[in-house]
């Protein structure tokens, strides 16, 4: 996630849209580092876990996740 041109702008756009975290199996190094600098948390999960979350998202209107930093878990509210 976050590779290609204008990588430094990607965290800005996501932040302005209201995202506080991005979940993916991997991130481009520049995007990963810029995310922290811009208050966006990049979360690396196994590809199977990301796929499962994506399927749940597609099946549920208004789907949301909560990132519990203390417990280091991603869960539904």
TrEMBL record:
Signal peptide: none annotated. Keywords: Amino-acid biosynthesis, Branched-chain amino acid biosynthesis, Leucine biosynthesis, Lyase. Its EC number is 4.2.1.33. Pathway: Amino-acid biosynthesis; L-leucine biosynthesis; L-leucine from 3-methyl-2-oxobutanoate: step 2/4. It catalyses: (2R,3S)-3-isopropylmalate = (2S)-2-isopropylmalate. InterPro entries: Aconitase/3IPM_dehydase_swvl (IPR015928), AconitaseA/IPMdHydase_ssu_swvl (IPR000573), IPMI_Swivel (IPR033940), LeuD (IPR050075). One of its GO terms (molecular function) is 3-isopropylmalate dehydratase activity. One of its GO terms (biological process) is L-leucine biosynthetic process. It holds the Pfam family Aconitase_C. Residues 1-47 form the Aconitase A/isopropylmalate dehydratase small subunit swivel domain. The keyword Transcription regulation does not apply. Belongs to the LeuD family. LeuD type 1 subfamily. Catalyzes the isomerization between 2-isopropylmalate and 3-isopropylmalate, via the formation of 2-isopropylmaleate. Heterodimer of LeuC and LeuD. PANTHER family: 3-ISOPROPYLMALATE DEHYDRATASE SMALL SUBUNIT, 3-ISOPROPYLMALATE DEHYDRATASE SMALL SUBUNIT 2-RELATED-RELATED. This is 3-isopropylmalate dehydratase. It comes from Xanthomonas euvesicatoria.
């Amino acid at each position: 996630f976050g590779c290609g041109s204008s990588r430094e702008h990607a965290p800005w756009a996501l932040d302005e849209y209201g995202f506080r975290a991005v979940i993916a199996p991997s991130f481009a190094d520049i995007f990963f580092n810029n995310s922290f600098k811009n208050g966006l948390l990049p979360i690396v999960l196994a590809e199977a876990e990301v796929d499962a979350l994506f399927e749940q998202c597609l099946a549920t209107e208004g789907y949301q996740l909560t990132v519990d930093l203390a417990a280091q878990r991603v869960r539904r509210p």
